[in-house]
Amino acid sequence: MKHKIGMALLCLIFSLLMLLFYLSKITNTSHQSISTTVLVSSRHRNLIIIKPNTTLDEASTDPTSVTTQPARASFMNPNDILESGFIEYSLGVSPLSDMKLVGHRVPEKILIPVDISDIYFSVKTASIYPDRLNTVMLTWAQTVSIEQISIITDATTNWTDAFSSRGYSISAATQCGLGHSVQSLCCKSGVEYDRFYKSIESGKKYNWFCHIDDDQYYNVWKLKRMLIKYDPNKPWYIGKSHHGPTPLSFYLRQNFPEAKGNNYKFNTGNVYCLSKQMMKETEKYLRGGNFDKSCSKTTRIDDVTISIIIVGVLGHKQTEEKQMWSHLELLDQLPKEESMKMISFGYGHLEGAYHGRWNTSLNLPNPRFSYNADPTRFLSYHCMVYPKLKWCQ
């Protein structure tokens, strides 16, 4: 009996050592001294947690330095993982795995061991820019579950029909018309808000409404890391501000007397997040066509109007996160070492021209693809964060 127990114990220790050896090979960190390391075994879906200041080589000879836990996102703190010095992720089958997007690349689902299910992602796009949506669906959208993404466009296309047939929530707000007018932008934003409120009424539980334009990239890991600093039960309006205050004209004051004050700084509309408490307080201004009416009163586009509602009417403050990108900033001025710290970024286009210059694209260290192959820099950035993707090889 003792002999059998001894053999079983030896087999268990040997299996653990082999697993650690396997992980050390795929991570190439076997000789690097690191802080508390959290690895995720894609084969076993377990967390393998190594004691602080223990290398993988040391851990392989000291089984007491290693513990394992099931990889359940609900108990994982993004700060603990992101500060650990190493993040392992696993790949799954994307609902779009039979489609080829952006240079015949096939989307791969990225399974990250952090709970982001409390974030509602609202993407605003336009039918004249199918390549933008394709790039989003190939890159950062693969880190988010289908149920969390809502896509608003102005007309259906073959591409939106294809995404919709694979389970993605896409709404064609044909009543908003085409173009980039104040009326069109505000109308589509109103549809975004309506869909969020309807989702909540259906029983979904979201702490955050996060809007993003189709020409932006979200680093979902960093977004979650930022959001956990804030209590969603308080009214938060988080984004990257316009460079200076926008005067509230006399005409606007006459038509929108609820607004107080004379000058407003606003978070630019390419990317921002509102807490669930803020969404509750703004509901009567945003829902059921009321946002369109508010825009008509302010005569301003959607991002300025929502700022006037939140800051001017409700009296809340704007919260600025430096690592969320404003489309008025020049990306080529951002140092390379800062580029990988961004929560979101975009790329240059006509509407984003500022001070007579294009915004160009993110300045990455050693990009995987040439500028001609990857003018948005979304592909190269995505491969730097998730290098195991097949199309990154």
Automatic annotation (TrEMBL):
It is found in: Endomembrane system; Membrane. Its main location: membrane. One of its GO terms (cellular component) is membrane. It is a single-pass membrane protein; Single-pass type II membrane protein. InterPro entries: Fringe-like_glycosylTrfase. PANTHER family: FRINGE-RELATED. This is Fringe-like glycosyltransferase domain-containing protein. It comes from Amphimedon queenslandica.
